[in-house]
Write a structure and sequence with these properties.
Glutaredoxin; globular; 2 domains; 214 residues; alpha+beta; Glutathione S-transferase Yfyf (Class Pi), Chain A, domain 2; four-stranded mixed beta sheet; 9 helices; 54% helix
Length: 214
């Protein structure tokens, strides 16, 4: 029985999972939870996911939450092709880069935070955009400084093929472009993002290619 991925086409956390599953060649069905219309706050969804968030991954009777945990589960359940390096030092390095996005950039510019920030001063869409640009740009520029000094022979951030770094990076770069964030100081990240998005697994996972896309 295929996995069921509950998500939303513009959810960057769901985007991460689509990329990882596509890279592994794992079949999955999708169910859309319409964040724009507030479906995530309804009783039916809260009964499945008490936080009212996406994504959620179902494997039979098992429900998995929080994309970092789900990505680790995917990596352990389908080890090949590997998304993490084969030694502990390198794995920690890549997980650290991923955590910059998962822990520090993404959480402060997801939809509920953007709405709350704009509501504080009544700034509306312009306030949401300014907030997203501020935290996305500062976070990605810091990540650029971390990865820029790491020797590489390919456009990818670690190794000859895209891995967990790109699984996290590409959705965040999508958000950055959506909010018209200045990426001129992030050439290494831009190069990795462009190379990854040219591959079928990433193209298939892109928001605009999802069945619930506007």
């Amino acid at each position: 029985m295929p996995l069921t991925l509950y998500g939303y086409w513009r959810s960057s956390a769901a985007y991460r999972l689509r990329i990882a599953l596509n890279l592994k060649g794992v079949a999955y069905d999708q169910v859309s939870i319409n964040l724009k219309d507030g479906e995530q706050t309804g009783e039916a969804w809260l009964a499945k996911q008490p936080q009212g968030l996406v994504p959620l991954l179902e494997d039979g009777d098992m429900r998995l939450v929080q994309s970092p945990a789900m990505l680790e589960w995917i990596e352990e359940t389908w080890p090949q092709p590997a998304l993490l390096p084969d030694n502990s030092d390198a794995r920690c390095l890549v997980r650290g880069w991923a955590s910059v996005i998962a822990c520090d950039i993404h959480p402060v510019q997801n939809l509920r935070i953007l709405k709350a920030a704009a509501a504080l001063d009544g700034s509306g869409f312009d306030g949401m955009k300014a907030w997203a640009q501020r935290w996305t740009q500062s976070g990605l520029e810091a990540l650029e400084r971390m990865v820029a000094g790491h020797a590489r022979s390919t456009p990818f951030l670690f190794g000859d093929t895209p891995g967990m770094s790109e699984v996290y990076l590409v959705p965040q770069m999508y958000n950055a472009r959506r909010w018209e964030t200045d990426l001129s100081n992030c050439p290494t990240l831009v190069k990795a993002d462009e190379a990854a998005r040219a591959l079928p697994a990433f193209a298939k996972a892109a928001p605009e290619n999802q069945p619930d896309a506007d």
